[in-house]
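Exercise (ungraded).
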Amino acid sequence: MSLPSEKNLSALLDERRTFPPAEEFRRRANWNDPAIYDRAAKDPEGFWAEEAKHLDWFAPWQKVLEWDAPWAKWFVGAKLNVTYNCVDRHAHSARRNKAAIVWEGEPGDSRVLTFDMLEREVNRFANTLKSLGVVKGDRIAIYMGMVPELAIAMLACAKIGAAHSVVFGGFSAEALRERINDAKAKVLITADGSWRRGNVVPLKASADEALTETPSIEKVVVLKRIGKAVQISMKPGRDLWWHDLVANASDECAAEPMDAEDMLFILYTSGTTGKPKGIVHTTAGYLVGASTTHRYVFDIKEDDVYWCTADIGWVTGHTYIVYGPLANGATVLMYEGTPDVPDRGRFWAIVDKYGVNILYTAPTAIRTFMRWGKEWPAKYKLSSLRLIGTVGEPINPEAWMWYHETIGHQRCPIVDTWWQTETGCAMISPLPGITATKPGSATRPLPGIAAEVVDAEGKPVGPGGGGYLVLSKPWPAMLRTIYGDPERYVQNYWSRYPGKYFTGDGCKIDADGYLWLLGRVDDVMNVAGHRISTFEVESAMVDHASVAEAAVIGKTHEVKGQAISAFVTLKEGVHASDALKEELKQHVVMKIGAIAKPDDIFFTSELPKTRSAKIMRRLLRDIAEGRVLGDTTTLADSTVLAKLKEQYKDEG
Ligand code: PRX
């Protein structure tokens, strides 16, 4: 394990531009007193308990935290229901007719669901699930595009106490199958397809392929999103249409009182092995973390229209499209498609059309917009925006400044939020009414969060230093375990520095104590904000009949942050060709999904290895990025590397 390249790091730490909150913004902000940091640090449990009062509880907790490292229980003994908090209580208040979900489909169709309408839809679907035999504790897989029914399905599960496992609609049939089987899901909820860049994503067809070997699945509910433009088949006895089922379902359904620590959902993410990890989040702590951070980081106000552009298939969508904002009674905008349909101004057209006040997106999207040119956003007013945010990967200062000027019109504070599937909610981020921001820094841990940068021995490093980011105290929205694999939970996150959560990210601290995230220090890549393991892609490659061995690295990429590069040795007698490269790329798409497709594949007769036969990816990264090679003393055969370097120069 090594820290990421030092390139530009000293430049980063020299960043002198600071952007304090504008006085007008500061005055109205939900949090504007810096004393909150000290108060929360002195008594984190008291701090979280205070914030938890924003939720409605069926029974109070006896204890805020029970911490038997690394096992946490928050709000011990309390009872509540997540959907009751996100929907019902608003539907029965002055917010009844307030828009909860404002949805825009890629082809231009749109829908608005008020809290009252959302409650009825959720109840109908919750009753539908019950009629299919779903009971508290069951796992339900969801494989859909970005339509309101995706949120409705999640909320319906939570209402009756079933745990959902949402699988991103861009994943392949095989990836879906693996996740269904790991969770032993009883029902799959999917759609005939979804729209993406004018094409149909054939969700049902992929689901059918996945379902050939998923013994736990009893029923499949299919939403009709596309209709005539896609051909699907329905398996009698197994597949049922969403609209048929809900037509006969009652729109009343009592919320199941859940224990604070009951599982709310599983969400799979990539780790350092080929097998995805089922990250387990529970009821109370997750909702307290999601709603609190949403309230303060995004400074949400009653009349705001809030838009997070992530897909709900990732944690960002779970926490900041569905649970955080809805718990706060906010109006959430949801968009189905891509930013370039019908043209490259789509996002900005949506901002103007709905008067979006808060926009939350990813650095990779911002870099894409930069490339498309200022003329696209310049066609729109963007005057409704008052706060903008980013998530998913480090944002380079150039992209930050472009976002600040071209989208935020130098008026909107930027919140660069660092967090992970595992953390459940934002951990490191500015508070827009308090923090002076610096382009490229996520600034400091939020109140109630304890983060440190430590060296290899676990000793905290001082200002100006760099090392590994760890979280040194439990927090409510933390993952509780890896589904079905508690050993791996302990091993993965808590064994490197006992008692501290190891994030897998490198980090530097500047003289003001600001944190600068440097990317992953393990074998996890971040490709266009998507987390992909090198091993997953390698396993997909060696699964192909022609491949003997593969080593995959994330290579620095101007827009995507990282791009996937694969070094491949072929089996005896296989002829290397461009056609084979293309075939291998398609093989990875088939095994994992288009997000994992390698940008380039490089055939070689040997891979650089240590004497104990470990592939030295670090050196492959140096080669791919044209850097001076790092330490090569542990190589078994140094001539392999010299040859590879020459060959890469010629072909690469
Ligand atoms: O490397 C960090 C990067 O994304 C990883 C977590 O990925 P995932 O679980 O898919 O969740 C992404 C959305 C929360 C982290 O380990 N990352 C996320 N946000 C930032 C970031 N790196 C730098 N700055 C960020 N703001």
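Further reading is listed at the end of the chapter. For now, observe: Residues 157 and 163 are 6 Å apart (CA to CA). The pocket of adenosine-5'-monophosphate-propyl ester is lined by residues 269, 315-316, 391-394, 416-421, 442, 503-505, 517, 519-520, 526, 531 (CB under 6 Å).
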